[in-house]
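Hi C.,

You asked whether I'd gotten around to modeling the 295-residue construct. I have! Everything is below, sequence then structure, no commentary in between.
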Amino acid sequence: MELRVLQYFLAVAREENITRAAALLHITQPTLSRQLMQMEEELGVKLFRRGRHNILLTEEGMLLRRRAQEIVDLAEKAARELKHEEETVSGEISIGCGETRNMKPLSEMIAAFRQEYPDVCFHIYTAIADDVKERLENGLLDMGLLLEPVEVSRYHYVRMPLREQWQVLMRRDWHLAKKQKVTPEDLAGVPLIIAKRQSVRNEFENWFGYGKEELHIVSTCNLSTHNLSVMVESGIGAAVVIEVFACNQDTLCLRPLEPVIESGCLLVWKKNLTFPPVMQRFIGYIQKYLSGTEN
């Protein structure tokens, strides 16, 4: 399957209309339709449901869309790296990040690095650790900023300077809002919204300590976004978040857990890879930068 055909497929999936996609691709509509039918024949599945006015993806088409986008992104990334292979101080670096206070020191390192190398462009991808690790494995990201626990056997890493403390986000009119700290006893039977990431859930369940029947999880979430505030404000439950979370101070409040749960944060990159010069330069820079911070 040619990369060009995958790009055609992605354009049709995005536009949901062959005529518009053909115009954007600067090819004729019959040519595009023929390429799509040949792709379906090659794969042996139906990728589209064709209507009178639009064309939509089947379940198989949605699966291919994700993989096709990864392949196209990886090909474009490789082309950019090859273009800059002789230029040690220019190029692009892709970093996947969870929502963490350590984005501040990372941002400071990026800003300082770009003071010396202004031709370097950084691409930031925000997602949960599992998604970031998958993209690292697929070569779509160069580095990942990951909240612990992290299995580091496949990575080189540096430890970021800030510790993340877990807190409970709740409505100000809740009875627990009167407390300065929240204990496991306080949360027994309380409707909770917690992280979807299994390793984080395990850590919270160990902290809770009661039988699982007392842990009342009503929803999970992947990131601490505005949507989470809306869910808590609507009375769905209290949310267990890290302290980086910003909330509406008029209607919501944060209370730390007691005993405290703290998590470290690592900036990782894959072992046994040959990186382009700009990435090698940045790795050396952050190692030196963080060493100076510790000293």
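If it helps when you're writing up: The chain has a mean pLDDT of 88.

Thanks,
B.
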